[in-house]
């Protein structure tokens, strides 16, 4: 028993010291083997899965494929996905083994993918390629797609670069990405780059401009009522991102950028800026607004592309409104993302310093972790209730806007379907509002990668069908375009 514990501690140290996903995964497999969870993965079913029914559906899909029955296969896919999606998406299935869940889930997803490609590539009686393309598009719309959401976090938010790099290296980076505050800077840096430019961004992080923060002199802080130089932040944004509209960014990168901003007016609502809702708004102004933490930076008037003044022309957007940090009212705009982009699975990278203490035990299991989670939940509820009562009592005072903002921050949701969180390390809090050096940059990126690697199996499984839909639609579009060209 003592030798077993020693081996486990040694492997856990190797996990923490891993410098690549391949190295991490190899060590995680050894740990799973040592703990017996590889055997658990190989066992047929468990109380969380309806093994018999899943195997029946796998066999039925195989039977339809072998018969070439594309219509029957389509019906079986519709039934099977509807019946099993909830159970195979259960996060408890991924809380036992380091390297993934039951092999039965992988077997099921393998057959679903094969069946979807079979329908895509074979004739359906009475259905043209154009009609099949519409069928796939309609099915994808019903099924939904994943989105990545990057929280605020000041300097901690640099770790989002590590999260996105880990996803990108495994071809799991979603096309829909949202960000607030520092998360908006990272999301913007990714969504204004095409694939070739993004490869350089991830492989050569030394080119990233790091000097975002510059404190004002005490006399200017008192006079201006904010602590940091906004022109320095804007220079940082321009250097890393440039000045482009949401529409221009989407056309260039093929990705959909979403940036959260919060209103300064109580009667105004938070906004999610993107190429659908605000195509001509300039990304740099949206990011500047989303970073405008009250007391740190002043509120921002958004800017939009003015095409009448040429390629670089700009004009105020909603000039009577000013906007602040998106984290205040919508660090994770879950509902707005779902409505606008048909999101069915949210991957959240959370680095907000004021949130981390409440969620630091979210992924742990056992009685001790449950007690910590219960204590954190009680404390969080108490803070929210206190702010609610204070807000009502002081409704007519000058403190009302600040209390509104504090209450909004305390009551919003900070977690999604799949969560990747910055490790809670109190000693790092001294770096929250300081510009990182190159060593800090590497450290934050590595923390992001290490936090993401244990979630990759879950992300790969739970986004696999969405990615297969995208691939099938791309193939059908290519075939339809080829047919149209041949017919001309």
From TrEMBL:
GO molecular function: triacylglycerol lipase activity
Superkingdom of this protein's organism: Bacteria
Keyword Hydrolase assigned: yes
Location of the motif GXSXG: 179-183
Catalytic site positions: 181, 325
Residues annotated as transmembrane: 142-161
Record key words, sorted: Hydrolase, Lipid degradation, Lipid metabolism, Membrane, Transmembrane, Transmembrane helix
Gene Ontology BP terms: lipid catabolic process
Coiled coil regions, renumbered to chain: none
PNPLA domain boundaries: 148-338
UniProt-listed Pfam families: DUF3336, Patatin
PANTHER family: NEUROPATHY TARGET ESTERASE/SWISS CHEESE D.MELANOGASTER, TRIACYLGLYCEROL LIPASE 4-RELATED
Protein's recorded name: DUF3336 domain-containing protein
Organism: Marinobacter panjinensis
């Amino acid at each position: 028993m003592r030798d077993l514990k020693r081996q486990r501690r040694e492997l856990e140290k190797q996990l923490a010291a891993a410098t690549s996903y391949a190295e991490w995964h190899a060590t995680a497999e050894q740990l799973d083997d040592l703990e017996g969870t590889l055997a658990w993965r190989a066992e047929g079913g468990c109380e969380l899965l309806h093994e018999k029914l899943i195997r029946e559906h796998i066999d039925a899909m195989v039977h339809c494929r072998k018969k070439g029955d594309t219509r029957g296969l389509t019906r079986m896919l519709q039934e099977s996905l509807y019946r099993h999606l909830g159970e195979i998406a259960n996060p408890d299935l991924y809380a036992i083994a380091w390297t993934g869940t039951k092999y039965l889930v992988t077997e099921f997803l393998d057959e679903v993918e094969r069946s979807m490609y079979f329908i895509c590539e074979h004739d359906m009686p009475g259905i043209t390629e154009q009609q099949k393309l519409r069928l796939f598009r309609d099915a994808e719309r019903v099924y939904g797609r994943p989105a990545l959401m990057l929280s605020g976090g000041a300097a901690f938010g640099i770790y989002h670069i590590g999260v996105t790099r880990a996803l990108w290296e495994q071809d799991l980076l979603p096309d829909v990405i949202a960000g607030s505050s520092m998360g908006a800077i990272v999301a913007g840096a990714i969504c204004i780059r095409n694939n070739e430019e993004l490869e350089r961004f991830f492989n050569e992080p030394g080119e990233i401009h790091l000097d975002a923060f510059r404190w004002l002199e005490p006399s200017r802080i008192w006079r201006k009522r904010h602590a940091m130089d906004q022109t320095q932040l804007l220079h940082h944004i321009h250097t890393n991102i440039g000045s482009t509209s949401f529409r221009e960014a989407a056309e260039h990168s093929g990705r959909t950028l979403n940036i959260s901003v919060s209103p300064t007016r109580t009667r105004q609502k938070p906004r999610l800026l993107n190429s659908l809702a605000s195509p001509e708004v300039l990304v740099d102004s949206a990011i500047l607004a989303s970073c405008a933490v009250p007391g740190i930076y002043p509120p921002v008037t958004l800017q939009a592309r003015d095409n009448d003044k040429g390629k670089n022309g700009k004009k105020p957007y909603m000039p009577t409104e000013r906007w602040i940090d998106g984290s205040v009212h919508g660090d994770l705009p879950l509902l707005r993302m779902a409505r606008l982009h048909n999101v069915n699975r949210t991957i959240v990278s959370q680095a907000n310093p004021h949130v981390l203490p409440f969620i630091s035990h979210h992924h742990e299991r056992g009685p001790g972790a449950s007690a910590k989670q219960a204590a954190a939940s009680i404390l969080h509820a108490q803070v929210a209730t206190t702010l609610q009562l204070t807000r009502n009592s002081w409704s007519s005072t000058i403190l009302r806007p600040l209390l509104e903002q504090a209450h909004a921050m305390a009551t919003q949701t900070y977690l999604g379907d799949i969560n990747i969180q910055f490790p809670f390390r109190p000693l790092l809090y001294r770096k929250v509002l300081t510009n990182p050096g190159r060593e800090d940059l590497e450290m934050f990126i590595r923390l992001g990668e290490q936090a993401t690697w244990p979630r990759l199996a879950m992300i790969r499984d739970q986004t696999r069908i969405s990615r297969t839909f995208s691939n099938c639609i791309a193939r059908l579009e290519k075939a339809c375009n080829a047919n149209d060209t041949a017919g001309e």
